[in-house]
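subagent[fold] <- orchestrator: predict structure for attached chain, return tokens only, no commentary.
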Amino acid sequence: MNTVELIRKKRDGEILSKDEIRFLISAYTKNKIPDYQFSSLLMAIYLKGMTTKGTSDLTEAMLYSGKVIDLNFLKGAKIDKHSTGGVGDKTSLIIAPIAAAAGVYVPMISGRGLGHTGGTLDKLESIPGFRTDLSLKEYKSTLKKCGAVLIGQTKEIAPADKLIYSLRDVTGTVESIPLITASIMSKKLAEGLDGLVLDIKTGSGAFMQREKDAIQLAHSLINTAKSFDKKVIGFITDMNQPLGNYIGNWFEVYESIKVLKGEMTGDLLELSLVLSGAMIFLGNKASSLKEGVEISRHYIANGKAYEKFLKIVELQGGEVSYIEKPEKYPKSKFVEKIYTATNGYLSTINNLEVGMAALALGAGRMTKEDKIDPKAGILFYPKLGDFIRKGDVLAELHSSSQSRIETAKEKLYNSITISSEPVRRPKLIKKIIY
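subagent[fold] -> orchestrator:
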């Protein structure tokens, strides 16, 4: 096959065959197609899109560029969750132990944060000693022993995705729905799972800020999952404010502990119960989503979900004492509270700016080389629709640098608007798509 002809074909809006897609992915992975040619192909896909079948064919080619993990030795359903990410989104740390406590295997391969959205791996690695770089042998062993495992992408899993993602990042082709779908699904399918729960965020702190774009991505992901005969359910969820109250890597571990111990209510608990309930439902441990939610609530109430989290931390090398006594975790050198300047109802939050404020404090990275401060972060108190009074604490900022706190303060003050009229609270779960 001729690479230039195939690029031209896609550029002109024609449909690439399964064999042509497989050739392009295989050749690029083997370094037989240079970056400049593959960049042209990515831009052609970005501009012309792909059919549902084309997206599935692209996913399959990327999936089989590496190993697909065989988990058939585990007698039971293997279910994972994928979130498109947001500010304070730490549900993976909560729902994996809940679903595992209910008897569902959770083979979770997660990513790192980049930009304003946090990454599950960075949160877990804030626990001293916690390893996310398990070998595939260790991955299987941990999964068998406790029912859940949370690791990063290995060299063996979808190597094409790693190469292509790096190129998309520097060629302005990140936002293509077919490319996003193939990237997500090639990694998820490589886990050896039977079903997938999708949490597609929409709002000011989300990757897909417009709800119609989030719905389009959800349908693309669901159609692709179904083409591989996987069970799937998608949720469109709100990201117009932080999820929970804690933002930052150790902060989010701490809040997850509080949820698992039954010490917190609110939006984080609500969403976690729904997502874990969906995993339990897809894993054949509940007859409905509603029953799955009740089972999830039960495993928090009886302490089994928290015990499962302790076991996951222990098996992946983490120091369990920090989970049992989180107050002994090192504190930031600088801590400052900031206060609201007027009375009124919290009407809008620019959640992207809240995420960028956490980034400014040292809680995230703008480039892959940036070093994260696991202690840095924000405790953000009010929720949209709350009535707040002048002098109420808006947020508490933690950082190793006073100048970083000054930068973050300005971003946070500029991120909110206050209204004299009551404001309707946003709906957390906007749509469920089967």
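orchestrator: received. Logging for downstream: The two ends are 38 Å apart (CA to CA). The first strand starts at residue 79 and ends at 83.
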